Amino acid sequence: MHTSTFLGMRTSILVALGLTVAGACTPGKGGDGSGGSESGSEATGEATSASGSGSSGSSGSTSGSGSSGGSGSASESMSGSGSASSSGTDTTGAGFSCEGSTPIDQNFVDPAAASGFERCPDGTIHRVEARACEAPATPDSCVDNSGGGACSSAADCTEQPFGSCQQDQAFGGVIASTTCSCVYGCATDSDCADGQICRCAGDGLGLYTECIDGGCVDDSECGDYLCALSPDTCEPGGFVTQCHGPGDLCFGDDDCPDFQPCYWSTYPEPAKWACNDAVCGRPFLVDEVARVAPVIERAGWSAGGPRPTQGRLSPALRSRLGDHWAAIAAMEHASVASFARAILELMAVGAPAELVADAQVALADEIDHAQRAFALASAFAGRELGPGPLALDHALGGTIDRRRLAEAVAREACVGETVAAAEARIASEACRDPAMARSLAKIAADEERHAQLGWRTLAWLLEGLDPASRAGVLGVMEEAIESALEGLVTAPPVAADSPEEAVARAFGLLPAGERAALVRCALEEIVRPCAGALAQRVAA
Question: What is this structure's pTM?
């Protein structure tokens, strides 16, 4: 039961902080996994307000500042159906070049029809023109509505046009929920609200045809740049379009470090296209950018790790799992550097021996985690993989002071590592391969201990700060929570019972929709209540 998993993690952190626990909340009461409790009220016997230093926030996403488009229907140019086999587009502008982009087909359409979106050679997806979606209502995925959800079939979804019935995923007890919800599609931009466009389902576009935030309608609104579709942090596809411009930090994934897609970022302001450094575990940040070493073919980092049975895996799924675990391995490897730096920083501010010693143990844990993950990546890839050189330029620069260190611990450990620990626990519980399950359970237990260490470290650092500085650090934590929630756009869940997703999940790869709901629930049901309890403690 995930209710007990999240409550157990929250309890362990509060106990590590020396606080008592009274009452419980139920993660994911809503069918979308967004969480139905009031941010973990009654988390401690000392405080019933768990929000800490800020509002509870919205889980949705807006197009942010810098929007260049108005109503989606203002400049429509519907051309009906079209085949993706038509020639692509050459777009070259100031700061961006996309020569030979390939049209993307709509899903659920036969014969093929173009979606109006095209993919550049570097992977950037942009909207060339508005096209009518020929399957405005996505086929149903609901297979189990025994829990009494909103629908059992599309016949129950009639409040708006183009209704379909999709299987929910929730964290109120089971991943593949026993409820289903209505999802409403669209045929053209005119079916959507002002400021939205109709995005067809398609490869890289999204699972379902639906209205999304449209900061731009198509390339014609963006001058010398493209009207690009921003990839979501956790869900497959994109849920906002925005023009690229001269102030952007990236124009495609090739401009970003490994495993960091170029996406539309509304935080910090001003909004712009930037590299998405959302990572698993404790990130190794240098100048606010997460660094990882490149994954290369080499021996020495995968010996002794789990080697799962792969007889039932298709080549495509084996490749997908290999890429996933290679990314996780690179992040775990970077966490070694993060803890090494943390030990030096703790010593620089006079931390007690207990915190320094526990950080040293955590560093050794991360080496073990990296080896286990590289072993999995190697097994799925069919060749030995390991990390290349990790760039350390400027990693130790700057003056180390107590407040700056507290802010970093709040962001990287109390928010980032706590969420990563929750994901590791759920992935270990989902895994069905015995060797992998044992290995992931070990990683999950270690990551939970690391999260507790982060909260203990922050509590000690806050005790040595003045009230204004404490409030500033807690404000940074709240901003980090809000930023993470902002990246989790509410979207139809992945059908957890689809054959490929079920097999992938059995090997530790959670469906994107499930992971998004998990992250949201961990932020609302673990991080925020613990932040509120800590705020009450340091204010006493």
Answer: 0.56
